[in-house]
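Troubleshooting entry. Yesterday's outputs looked truncated, so today I'm pasting the complete records for two proteins to confirm everything comes through intact. If either block looks cut off, that's the bug. Protein one:
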Amino acid sequence: MESTEHPTEADPLRREDGAETAPSASEQRENSKNVGVPKRTHWRTAIFFLSLFICLTIVFAFSFILPCPVRAQYLKTWNRTFSEAATYDFLAVEHASSDKMLDILFVLKNTEGANNLSCASGGLSSPCLFFIGVDGTDGETLWERPLEAEFHWAQCGQQKEPEKSWHCLVAHAYNLTAIDKYTGKIIWQQPQPTGLQSSLPFLTVPDLDGDEVSDVLLVASDSTQTQLVLLSGKTGVQIGFTVVLDFTDTASHLLHRTKGGSYYVVLQKDTGVYGLALWRIAAKAKLKVELKKDAHLEKNASDSAPLIPIFEFNGVSVLQTKKKGDTSDMLVVTSSGVVLIDGNKLQPRWRFNTSAVVSELSFGHFNKDEILDVVVEDNIGNNTKRVVILDGKSGGVLWEVDLLAVANSPRPGSVYTAKSISVFMFWGLMPSNSNNSESFVGNRRSYMLLPHYPKILLECSNVMEHIIAFKATLLELGRHAAYILLTGPQVEGANGTVVLTKRKLKEDVPSSNVLRIGSVDESNEVIKEAFNRLRFSSQ
């Protein structure tokens, strides 16, 4: 029998007739645990969103206060034209502004500069020289410095130590002038040392006068003697006495550092290449300075015969340095070949026979062994030159092509790519484009070679003016390979129209002709796309 005191499932509404039943003790304990839980959850949510709001506010505030650096917006091609002016075979590509793009330095002779600055403003007679820095992005003038005419030579880029406040040295009139490449300011100016006119390059040597700034060595020569003059890198004042050598007609020179840290001035004449220790030069100049001596090399020298024979051969014409770490190998061009001299042992590594080298040697990376390869232009007769790329390690031929040797063709150039090879650029005319020697005079073309496609050349004919200076270079890391041209009158230093042009290397690709010098399966579009996809890098 069911009890009438408790409601059952059959009688669900009976509880309404009486008072509500009180909760049990266990239910009270459970309810006490849940009291306040919704309130704590709301507080946590509020604190989270408040923190998020504060963080976002700080991020957005600093994004406006400290904006990201703006990358320089460059023009793919630009040119500057100067009427009734003269220019010279000098182009330097340097950082001369605060952006990441390299800039261009050159010399102009005129009555006024690029920004209408007159010679009189610098207290000079007219016409005068203007040493000018232009922005690599758009060709606008950064600065210009009027200097006294005439121009002899200029050189930039060897001074890398922070203690030195100048970057370019200009020989002009009777002066040597050191210039800051960022402002064009003259740091020091001194009369040229008495005696013979010095020649390029000037050599940067270790500090010899104790002022903690590297110094300068000038070399001058004629048919009677060779003179060596040391200058303070800080002030330009001559250090010690002029050193006179019984060594005539020095055609070229450079500074060589041995593996042990000894320095030698390498002098080249028509009978060979010889080295003279810097410590001997300092001693002859009456300077008291301690310099390292190379015991091995000094076995071949003495006080009465200080010159060390490095390579003796009749008819040496050019001497160049192949850079490789602290110790540089040396390339000697003779009347019958190119010889690589080991920078440590000063002994030949390899030799390549030639008929007559027609331009200054240049370098690049044809293969991926990380050793610079050598570009040689060899005269093979009948107005024809053979462009040969030699393996820097062995001297073997990696690539070659025959071109007509058109007058006023600059030396070859190259730009290093992110794929550890270079794009090569050279000048001439493909024989198939000319039927006789008369028709190609002045019909100069430029050619680009990508080692991935050794049987392909891109041919371009967009430069017909007389070229005074040319340089292929990387203006911005990774993205902006370009070539710089300085064109003007056929006689260097003569008045006429001078044009400075910068052109992005890839700008020539769409209008170029694809020349096949062998069997290639890829289409013209594939070849051009390979050039367009290139990324460039510094070595």
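Protein two, checking that the full record survives here as well:
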Amino acid sequence: MGEALALYIPSQEITATTQDEPSRCYFHDGDGVCEEFEQKTSIKDCGVYTPQGFLDQWASNASVSHQDQQCPGWVIIGQPAASQVCRTKVIDLSEGISQHAWYPCTISYPYSQLTQTTFWLRAYFSQPMVAAAVIVHLVTDGTYYGDQKQETISVQLLDTKEQSHDLGLHVLSCRNNPLIIPVVHDLSQPFYHSQAVRVSFSSPLLAISGVALRSFDGFDPVTLSSCQRGETYSSAEQSCVHFACEATDCPELAVENASLNCSSSDRYHGAQCTVSCRTGYVLQIRRDDELIKSQTGPSVTVTCTEGKWNKQVACEPVDCGVPDQHHVYAASFSCLEGTTFGSKCSFQCRHPAQLKGNNSLLTCMEDGLWSFPEALCELMCLAPPPVPNADLQTARCRENKHKVGSFCKYKCKPGYHVPGASRKSKKRAFKTQCTQDGSWQEGACVPVTCDPPPPKFHGLYQCTDGFQFNSECRIRCEDSDATQGRGSNVIHCRKDGTWSGSFHLCREMQGQCSAPNQLNSNLKLQCPEGHAIGSECATSCLDHNSEPIILPTNVTVRDIPHWLNPTRVQRVVCTAGLKWYPHPAVIHCVKGCEPFMGDNYCDAINNRAFCNYDGGDCCTSTVKTKKVTPFPMSCDLQGDCACRDPQAREHSRKDLRGYSHG
């Protein structure tokens, strides 16, 4: 290709020129600016030139005769890089050519010893069309260093019926790059749509960076050739339309909520009108009663053709849609006027939120958005409900308006305390907070309880209300004790959770328990203190991996359900009634827990309430990794390694009555 060259000589350089100094030249090609005079000649600055009335379609897929990782065929897909200059008389193509162009790199050198080999590439196009020309863009013209002859390529078109159409043999030259091969159609034969181009050549030094198919823009010869008598081809419709010598005027164009700008006051064939919707309205464009598109653009042009307008246009109001909580939080909306431009919706605050402001209306604006609310729904809590066995300490909390986040203080009545408080502190004061849904946090006061009396008195005392506050527990001794001042064997549970005194042994409470016998299998007792009243025997299991526990009378060691959490037993005591407590007959040995709880592996042996369901490892909602991994891997996730924990989120909506036994 010839390079564009222009002279630029400033006025101050004229004098310098007379003193035999050279003039200054500016080289336009490759300066990154597409000048008007470069559009047809400079590929670097303007890309491949496409004449007016034509459309160039570059290859969307490709196959080649020789390729590997060094020279893949896909590099010819799409428009070629403008930075690549065509080279001639090359020695080899190893310097980065494969990044921009394909060449048969799998052929071995030297060039002089190559036998005659035919190389080829086939370029495919996504949209078959009637070809006007084929464009081949070169990076090298295939000539070897010191070679005097020019190389050639053979080009064929492949149509949609897999028929081949030969375009002949063409000489290659970097001066004529890209190579544009015109396609001549035989008008005595039907037009055909081309879908691929095949390029064949024999030089291994030919590098091709792109192949394009040039077609007519807005003109389809195949459709044109199909027009029947009385029809003519319409470039606007790109189809055959009925033709009549006597043109019929179109009816008056009337579009509500729009302004019209027509080329003439008459409505003759070919007249055009531009339709622009007013603010707040959107264009609806139809053709033959079928919606083509909906646009918010400024305008559309309609044309009078054969007595009717080629498009049906309407201006519909913008629809804002039903407002939701993103517009006004904690509100419900009523849109009796609809939700289109200019319509208004009112809102009411959902209980217990209260309206703050006077204007509870929203208006659908021209941009399809609702107007900014001038009022809001402020969530408020009513007066907090009474808490049983507690007194409200904050006087203002008796009112009905409380902002989210405000607190109310309570104090448990004497003999009651806050749940969860330790036995030593017995905390009585607590706070509740107004939450975002307009409700108060729950608070409670539970009765103070005292620890059970020493186990050696088990079964000998009677209490009026268990171990709760104000309960009286009594051991009745024989009358002889009363005469000696020991008849006051009575204790009371005080409000601080301690007993008013302690039990003592009655005179008649003497002797010792019999030695424990008939122990359950695997259970062992050790009694270093003997069997006297108050003596303790340590419990253990012969199997060091088992633990002593108490089982209900209707449950055996072999059928313990997973939800049952039996009580562990460390020792038994000889009571003043000369009985062992707990009785050894109800103590059994069961398999203990493996020490791998909470390690993100669901151990089947630990998947039970007794082992805290393996520390949460068997449920997706409680395992740290959020994915249950069974151990061993063969453990069934629907069986022994299933999610059994009734407190897990997986069981939040299931019937948990079966778990209440634990």
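Both blocks look complete. Sanity check on protein two: The domain at 54-222 is CATH 2.60.120.260 (Jelly Rolls).
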